Amino acid sequence: MNSKIIKETVENTFNTFIDVKSRRRDITYMRAIYYKLCKEFTLEPLHRIGKTINRNHATVLNGLKTFEHVIDNFWEKEYFDHYIIIKNHLKTKATLKIKKSNPDKFYKNKYRIKLLQNRKLYNHNKKCIKMLEQMNFKYFNKLKIELNSITNDKKYVAK
Question: Smallest Cα–Cα separation from 109: which of 124, 98, 94?
Fold first, then answer.
């Protein structure tokens, strides 16, 4: 995610350009939303965020303060609602981009907890089979073979 994509999204949402030389309240609030989204979704420094719309880093800082103090649920609810909609849209866009570019990483992060739980369960079953072997349980070989067949099955192994 970069600031140009965020700029296009904000401009498309409000149907106006945010890099025009104007101090009108609506455009100032749109820029503040843009600054906040850039701060959340990119690792770009302030001067680069401002450079995208022909502003300097001090203007970006002032816009971030404007967002924090003015654009909230109480004062400018309409702009805050637009901010939430754009933020959710960008989150979806970012996850789809990760899913498309690196599906292994996407699914590994998504199912990380299940993978860890399955690994723990596998290790626990392995310990139980060892204990049964030590107690001379007559079916421990069958259980061991079944556990190994599950782990060696091609449809369960990652490619």
Answer: 98
On the question of pLDDT at 17 being above 80, the answer is yes
- The counts of H helices and E strands in the chain are 8, 0
Kindly state whether residues 44 and 120 are assigned to the same domain: no
Gyration radius of the chain over CA positions: 26
Same domain, 37 and 54: yes
Supply the angle between the helices 112-134 and 103-110 in degrees, to the nearest 10.
Answer: 70
Which structural domain, as residue segments, surrounds residue 125?
111-152
Token duo for residue 150: 């599950």
**Residue 5, pLDDT score:** 92
Residues 91 and 127 placed together within one structural domain of the fold: no
- The verdict on 115 and 148 lying in the same domain is yes
Count up the domains in the chain and report the number.
Answer: 2
DSSP result, 144-157? HHHHHHHHH-TTTS
Give the pLDDT mean for 23-29: 93
Question: CB 34: neighbour CB atoms within 10 A?
Answer: 28
